[in-house]
Amino acid sequence: MGEKSEVIINLFGILDVTGEVVTMWIMLFVFTLISLIVKKNLKERPGKFQNVIETGVEYLDNFFTDILGKKKARKYFTFLASLFIFIIFSNYSGMFPGVGLTDYVKAPTACLSVTAALGVVTFLFLQISGIRHNAKHYFKHFISPIIIMLPLLLLDEIIKPASLALRLYGNIFGEEMVTEELYHIFPIGVPVVMMALSLLFCALQAMVFTMLVSIYLDEVTE
């Protein structure tokens, strides 16, 4: 599970396709399919499937509203919800039988390249949101209360997404490695307990990541 990513195929001489990329493609296909099904079958009196989707959306909306307030939560919901959904399903993908045991399918968030990419996307999103919300105030906060704070505050902006990426990678990679080692030592019983705990652990990591992003977002859009 924790082995170095192997390149399965190289597309056009510029894109290396690894097991993590394959898993992300599968997830993207499933998400797109579910979205199309839900959109096509929306009803005023929802069925069981639509009820599940609406319950999930309502939970996320309440989660972000508690941090950002209703107005900001609705404004940035698409990005934050997409981030949460991608992370939690990436985390859970490592629990499916065979995932991580072959080079062709691997949990994306157990790869530093993927979590680093999430960090970069988050960094850009925060900067763009801060500038669009109030450019003058946003740039001014880098020299407040005095201009010599500029290098430290710029470094702080870089450290935030880097810490998010390293925390997510370290926790998911570590959890997979511990589960794998326990399987070799105690092949019966203990791995089942670890898998049960992983259900909670993976959801918690997705919540922590998006919660911190929401807090950072609230700061840059004050």
Provide a brief overview of the structure.
The chain has helices at 19-40, 48-68, 70-75, 77-93, 112-140, 150-185, 190-220; strands at residues 7-11, 15-18.
Helix/strand layout:
Blueprint lengths: L6 E5 L3 E4 H22 L7 H21 L1 H6 L1 H17 L18 H29 L9 H36 L4 H31 L2
Antiparallel strand pairs: 1-2
Helix pairs in contact: 2-7, 4-7, 5-6, 5-7, 6-7
Helix content: over 70%
Based on DSSP secondary structure assignment, what is the total number of beta strands? 2
**C-alpha end-to-end distance:** 42 Å
Order the strands across the largest sheet as they lie in space.
1-2
Keywords:
single chain; 222 residues; mainly alpha
Task: Please describe what this structure looks like.
The protein is mainly α and 222 residues long. The chain has one domain (7-220). The protein is built from seven helices and two strands; from the N terminus they run ββααααααα. It has a two-stranded antiparallel sheet with strand order 1-2. A hairpin with a 3-residue loop joins β1 and β2 (15-18). α2 (48-68) packs across α7 (190-220), α5 (112-140) runs antiparallel to α6 and α5 (112-140) packs parallel to α7. The longest helix has 36 residues, at 150-185. It is globular and about 60 Å long. The model has no long low-confidence stretch (mean pLDDT 81).
